[in-house]
Amino acid sequence: MTDRTKSSSKPQSVEECESAGDSNEPQGSSAKIRVVVVLFAVVAAIGGAIVLMSNRPDGPADLGIDEKVTTLGSVEVTGRLIEIRGKFLPNDGLYNYAFVMKYEIVESHRGEVDAKEIFVAHYNPLKPRPQVADEFYPNIGGTLTKFRAGDVHRMALEVPIDDHYIGGIVDRYFDEREGSIYLAVWTNLTNRQ
Amino acid sequence: MFLMRPDGSQLRNITNTPAWSEAAPRFSPNGKKMLYRRLKKEQTISHDRWGFQGQLMLADADGTKAVEFGKTGEFTWGAWSPDGRQISCLSLRGVEVVDLKTKRVIRKFPRQGVFQQLFWAPNGKWFCGTANVGGEKWTIVRMDASTGKVNVVSKFQNCTPDWFPDSERVIFSNRPADQGGHGWTQLWMAGATGKKRGLVYGEDGRHIYGGALSPDGKYVLFTRSAKDGGGSERGGAPGGLMRLSDAPIIGGSSKALRKEHPNTKDGPVLPLPVCWEPHWTYAAIGDAK
């Protein structure tokens, strides 16, 4: 009994439950225990899932979809930010620039992207996307508040950057980069892995 | 918009437009006309993106007969051709040469990474501008006006380039690396091929912008801003005038800068009224001689 109390305090496998049923306990008691254990496992699984999802940025299954990201730009992708090379320059209201970051494509939604890794320039990256628009680039934005390597973003992009952006570009991949730089028009955080 | 003699005297307002802000005047090569940008009064003038702001205005050099040359956002970075009959413009579309009379684009070529401050050389053969080149931000380049090909004049943290009268040299602001922290912006010159770089004026504690040569190439006009940005976003910055033959000059105590440039002179600098992005003409304007 003591052992069973202990075992019922943590999730069990089906085998463990069946093994318990093979003991010398009466049949009715064994069925009750089995029901309790299954119920406990279900409750624990739901609880675990809730805890897991509550740690994600915007609750369950946030794919970063909104009207802007699905309509702006000529390309739309979900990508993992795999590297921010070096420090950002200050955004002190004096100097404005686009900073090139490296992404791994998780999913391509719209337009053509012919590489698994792409280079995306974000305008004034120290500013949260909801506040980044200004008189020169009024349509740049998104929900992302901070760039962190490893996060997955859903982005509306334009390419090539020189057709859509005229300003300073910090490109620390110049010597090794192949292909065009994409300009991020809209950047939303997702909780995709 | 204010006009003054090169010694700072006879300062006078030549536009008198309380409803507007005006920025970045450029006299025509013959000194008779002026281009500038007119902005809404409440708009903050960007120290390095002013060419994209407001409307391009065309006026006589004394500020009279001002007309709107274009609508807001048109003819961005409009700058005179050597003969004053055309202007060059810089935008996402590239570099466009516009006929002043018809306002039609008569020539167009890719901007090759140039993103601000595109100015035509007095000999008509070149442009200078600030560009993204080779992964380096804020690089000064020279662009061939017939082919659009560029060569680097100065890499890393430069802006506000302008031509010497001989079209062989460029004056520009540069904030060298390794000054510790943000650093101070200094006035430099270089051959348009990128060779023979030299300090013109520097002063720790001041950001030096708006370098402009006198029409005879003997004097240098600039501003000395305590805060970075040249002062356009705020109330401007004290102006200064020096002889080019006295370069390089270091102002103030500037211990670190003097250590870096031990052979500088302490030449005289004539203080001028607070201004921003000044320009210079040899012509007599109005009653001022």
Itemize the secondary structure elements and their pairings:
The complex is a heterodimer of chains A (193) and B (289).
Chain A (H helix, E strand, L loop, with lengths): L1 H6 L6 H8 L5 H28 L20 E9 L13 E14 L6 E7 L17 E2 L9 E7 L9 E3 L10 E9 L4
Parallel strand pairs in A: 2-6, 3-7, 4-7
Antiparallel strand pairs in A: 1-2, 1-5, 2-3, 5-7
Chain B lengths: L1 E2 L8 E2 L6 E8 L5 E8 L14 E6 L6 E2 L10 E2 L5 E6 L2 E6 L5 E5 L4 E7 L5 E8 L2 E9 L5 E5 L3 E6 L5 E6 L11 E6 L6 E5 L4 E7 L5 E7 L11 E7 L5 E2 L4 H6 L9 E6 L14
Parallel strand pairs in B: 18-22
Antiparallel strand pairs in B: 1-2, 3-4, 4-5, 5-6, 7-8, 8-9, 9-10, 11-12, 12-13, 13-14, 15-16, 16-17, 17-18, 19-20, 20-21, 21-23
Tell me which oligomeric state these chains represent: heterodimer
Record field, number of beta strands of chain A: 7
Largest sheet of chain A: 5 strands, mixed, barrel
**What is the residue-mean pLDDT of chain A, rounded to a whole number?**
79
Count of all domains of chain B: 1
CATH topology of chain B: Neuraminidase
Total beta strands of chain B: 23
Q: Which value, in Å, is the CA radius of gyration of chain A? A: 25 Å
Distance between the termini of chain A: 43 Å
Contiguous helical run count of chain A: 3
Mean pLDDT score of chain B, rounded? 93
Tally of helical runs of chain B = 1
Structural class of chain A: alpha/beta
Strand order of the largest sheet of chain A: 1-2-3-7-5
CATH architecture of chain B: 6 Propeller
Task: Name the shape of chain A in a single word.
Answer: elongated
What is the 3D shape of chain B?
globular
Question: What strand order characterises the main sheet of chain B?
Answer: 15-16-17-18-22
Order of helices and strands of chain A: HHHEEEEEEE
Largest sheet entry of chain B: 5 strands, mixed
Topology as H/E string of chain B? EEEEEEEEEEEEEEEEEEEEEEHE
